[in-house]
TrEMBL record:
Protein's name in the database: TldD/PmbA family protein
Source organism of the structure: Clostridium muellerianum
Domain Metalloprotease TldD/E C-terminal intervals: 242-470
MF-aspect GO terms: metallopeptidase activity
GO process terms (BP): proteolysis
InterPro entries: Metalloprtase-TldD/E_C, Peptidase_U62_metallo, TldD/PmbA_sf
Transmembrane regions: none
Any one Gene Ontology cellular component term annotated for this protein: cytosol
SUPFAM superfamilies the UniProt entry points to: Putative modulator of DNA gyrase, PmbA/TldD
Superkingdom field: Bacteria
Family: Belongs to the peptidase U62 family.
Length: 475
C-alpha cells in the first residue's frame, strides 16, 4: 500500500516557496529542506512493556544560503505566510552578523555556488501494512507472542527482549531549480535471547530491517528458534585462542567489515581534512580481485534508501571498490565542491538541527559465485563468524576492529559444533581485504542499528554482503 506524504509539509510548501523568493533578492543560492519524521519504538521483555517515540522523530526546516563567501544555514520548527518577511529579515541579520564575527576571528573557507540542475521528482514508498492500520495493542500482542514462543523452548532462558521500531520519513527539498519530495517507511527489529546456567550468562540476537512496516514482525517470529538455540550453545563456548585464521564471515560480519574498512575511510569530508589514507590509494589495488563494494541510496533497498539526500542531491549507486581497485569516495555537496567532484548523494543530517556530513547509506560487498558449503569445505581449521555487535576503524591508518558475538569452529572442512565467544576481529584493512579468496552468491543487508560520525551525529545506515572467506586476525 502507498505511503502517505506528510500533510504538514504539503501545507507549508507554498510558504517555503515564498521564503525562497524573498531571500533570493539578496542571496544567489537559496534552498530549504523540510522534514517530518514520526515513529515509535516498542520493547517487550519479561520485566515489562515500553512504547515511546522513535529516536528519529523530528519536524522542522533548514534554510541554506550562499552568503557571498560560503554557506550559512538556519534551522527552525515552523513557517507560515504570516511570518515569512520576519523570518527572511532574521536570516539576513544573522548572516551579516555571522560574517562580521568570523572575519575578525578566523580565516573563512570559501565555496563556489552550487550548480543545480532543474529537477522535479517525487517518491512514495509502499508497505504491506500501513502504520495507521495496526494499533499499538496489536503490535504489542504480536511481540508478546514472539517472547512467549521463545520461553517455551528452554528453561535456561532468563529473559527474551523483543524490539521493534518504525519511522515514517517525509521530506521536501525546494530551491530555485529543485522541487523534490519523498515519503517512505522503514522498520527495524531484533530478538535478544538471554540464558543462564551455573552462573554463566550468554545471549544471542537476530536483527532485521527493511522498507517495511509491522509486517517485519512476522519475519521476526521466524527467527525465534534459531536465536534461542545459539544462545544455549554459547553456554558451552570458550574464548578463542588469539591468532590468524582462515574464516568465513557471515553477511552481517562482511557488512560491518565493509562499513568500517572502506565506509568511513572514503567519506570525502575526511579527504578535505586530510584525515583519510584512502585519498592516496585511488585507482590502486586495496583488495582481492573478487571484491567489489558499493555504497548508495540507490544501490539497494533498505533503511537508508531514498530519492534524495538532506542537501537535495539524488541518491546514487557508488562503486567504491571495483574488482579490488579503489575507485571512488562518497561525498556531501561541500566536500565535492572543495575537491572538484560530483556529489554522490551522501549528505546526511542526524536531524534538521544538525550539519550535513558525508555519510554512508547502504554499504555492501557484491556477490560472487561460490557456494557456502564449498567455502566451509575449503578450510582445514578456522571459524565461521557471525553476529557482529560493534566496530571501529582508523581512516588515517587503516586499522580495523570488529566485535563479533561468536565463531563456529571448522575443522577438516566441517563444522564441529564447537563455538568460541566473544571474538575480536582485527587487522590492517588492505591485508584483510586482499586475503579474500571466496565470495558466495547472495547478498544480504541489515540496517538494525545506527552509525556515528566519530562519537556523535547518528544516522540510519545498512550494511551487508555475501559470505566471504578471508584470513583474519582474531583475539
Amino acid at each position: 500500500m502507498k505511503v502517505k506524504m506528510s500533510d504538514f509539509l504539503n501545507n507549508t510548501k507554498p510558504s517555503i516557496k515564498k521564503l525562497i523568493e524573498n531571500l533570493s533578492k539578496d542571496f544567489k543560492c537559496v534552498s530549504v529542506l523540510g522534514t517530518d519524521v514520526c515513529g515509535k519504538l516498542y520493547v517487550v521483555q519479561k520485566t515489562g512493556i515500553s512504547i515511546k517515540d522513535s529516536f528519529w522523530s523530528e519536524r522542522g526546516f533548514v534554510v541554506k544560503v550562499h552568503n557571498g563567501i560560503n554557506y550559512s544555514e538556519f534551522s527552525f520548527n515552523e513557517i507560515s505566510e504570516n511570518n515569512i518577511d520576519n523570518t527572511a529579515e532574521e536570516i539576513r541579520r544573522k548572516v551579516k552578523s555571522q560574517i562580521e564575527v568570523l572575519k575578525n576571528k578566523v580565516n573563512i573557507n570559501s565555496y563556489d555556488l552550487i550548480n543545480e540542475e532543474k529537477i522535479q521528482k517525487s517518491f512514495v514508498g509502499e508497505v504491506k501494512i500501513l502504520p495507521e492500520e495496526t494499533s499499538d495493542k496489536e503490535i504489542i500482542e504480536k511481540m508478546t507472542a514472539i517472547k512467549d514462543k521463545a520461553f517455551t523452548l528452554s528453561k535456561l532462558l532468563i529473559d527474551v527482549r523483543v524490539r521493534y521500531q518504525r519511522a515514517h520519513v517525509s521530506k521536501i527539498f525546494l530551491s530555485n531549480n529543485k522541487d523534490l519530495a519523498q515519503s517512505y517507511i522503514w522498520s527495524e527489529g531484533a530478538i535478544f535471547s538471554i540464558v543462564r546456567q551455573d552462573n554463566k550468562t550468554k545471549y544471542s540476537y537476530s536483527p532485521l530491517s527493511g522498507l517495511k512496516a509491522s509486517e517485519l514482525l512476522d519475519e521476526m517470529s521466524e527467527k525465534v528458534d534459531e536465536t534461542v538455540d545459539i544462545s544455549i550453545k554459547l553456554l558451552n563456548s570458550s574464548p578463542v585462542t588469539p591468532g590468524e585464521y582462515d574464516c568465513i564471515c557471515s553477511p552481517d560480519v562482511s557488512g560491518i567489515i565493509a562499513h568500517e574498512a572502506f565506509g568511513h575511510g572514503v567519506e570525502m569530508d575526511m579527504f578535505v581534512k586530510n584525515r583519510a589514507k584512502a585519498v592516496q590509494y585511488m585507482d590502486k589495488a586495496v583488495a582481492s580481485k573478487l571484491v567489489t563494494m558499493h555504497d548508495g541510496a540507490a544501490s539497494a533497498s533498505d533503511v537508508s534508501s531514498y530519492l534524495f539526500d538532506d542537501e537535495g542531491v539524488l541518491g546514487t549507486d557508488t562503486i567504491v571498490i571495483d574488482k579490488g581497485i579503489l575507485k571512488k569516495g562518497i561525498s556531501d555537496t561541500l566536500s565535492a565542491l572543495k575537491l572538484g567532484t560530483k556529489p554522490t548523494g551522501n549528505g546526511k543530517r542526524e536531524s534538521f538541527e544538525r550539519k550535513a556530513y558525508s555519510r554512508m547509506t547502504n554499504t555492501y560487498f557484491s556477490a560472487g559465485t561460490d557456494k557456502l558449503e564449498d567455502m566451509i569445505a575449503s578450510i582445514e581449521f578456522g571459524y565461521l563468524l557471525d553476529a557482529p555487535t560493534s566496530g571501529m576503524e582508523d581512516p588515517k591508518n587503516w586499522g580495523i576492529q570488529c566485535m563479533v558475538n561468536y565463531g563456529l569452529e571448522i575443522k577438516n572442512g566441517k563444522l564441529t559444533g564447537n563455538i568460541v565467544s566473544p571474538v575480536v576481529l582485527t587487522g590492517y584493512v588492505p591485508d584483510l581485504l586482499k586475503s579474500i579468496s571466496m565470495v558466495s552468491g547472495k547478498v544480504e543487508l541489515c540496517g538494525s542499528g545506527a552509525c556515528g560520525k566519530g562519537h556523535k551525529e547518528y544516522v540510519k545506515v545498512s550494511c551487508g554482503g555475501p559470505y566471504i572467506k578471508a584470513k583474519v586476525r582474531l583475539g
